[in-house]
Amino acid sequence: MTDTVNVPEIFNRQRRRVVRDRAFSRAKGDDFFSQIMAEEIVERLDVVKRSFRRALIIGLPAAGLGKKLESRGMKVVFADSSARLASALGGVICDDDRLPFADHSFDLIINIGSLDTINDLPGALVLIRRILIPDGLMLAAMFSAESFPILKSVIMGAEGDRVSAHMHPQIDVRTAGDLVARAGLTLPVADSDHLRLKYSSLQRLIADIRDVGGSNIMAGTLTSIPRHVYAEIERRFRAKAGLDGKFSESVTILYLCAWAPHPDQPKPARRGSGQVSLTTAFSGKDDR
After folding, report:
1. Which of 95, 147, 185, 226 is 20 to 30 A from 175 (CA-CA)?
2. pLDDT at 143
3. Which helix or strand (DSSP H or E) is residue 214 part of?
4. What is the spatial order of strands in the sheet that 75-80 belongs to?
5. Does 87 have pLDDT greater than 80?
6. For a pLDDT cut of 70, what percent of the chain falls above it?
């Protein structure tokens, strides 16, 4: 467990657990965004030139992803702050930055859609390094700071002088890569996938966000959007609709890949030198 004494309380832990419970009850991790992330993670895992024996999965789409890993001969452990998810899958109830596992417990850790809603992201990454065996692999996916620009701007415009925090802060690709490296993980790769989506209604967009656990979990007093402000938000969205009656929104999903240190790994190259290929990063060993 990390020392969280000096970590700012950005998110309310209890509220986060409730939100993730509700999200799991609604969609069981089969929601739109979770499935996009999970499918991409599986594709990236397919590139890795090795087998894994013991995996830890954190995130709402754990059930479907777990079956895929078990079919490959892996022993899978589930963990999440959602008590309902943990109960349904026989997993462990815990926050990402308070993982209760011993050092060197897993050779693969997958986190989907969860790392961007924890108070101590650097501490969580350090924990991942510690509980991975040497040369163990971490794969993660989460929303990037560039996500939902239309929704954010419309909410701010509709609220006018009364601006409240309804969507939590997120990090960009460069910051994520820096945090992974600072945590002591090696061969870090941080990249992103930009999605352009069309929605027929504001309600459908909000439902997709809620189903992935994206409801307001900010620390402090929870402020709801007044009815007249919500009506103004809807009006502004309708004004942005195209000829087909749908409006566009963009989402950027950030993907992380890194390894626990091992003496046989290639040495990290200077930033921007282009000396380590993606093949090397996904294999954990030098392909030259």
Report:
1. 95
2. 95
3. none
4. 92-93, 75-80, 54-59, 106-112, 132-143, 247-259, 186-199
5. yes
6. 88
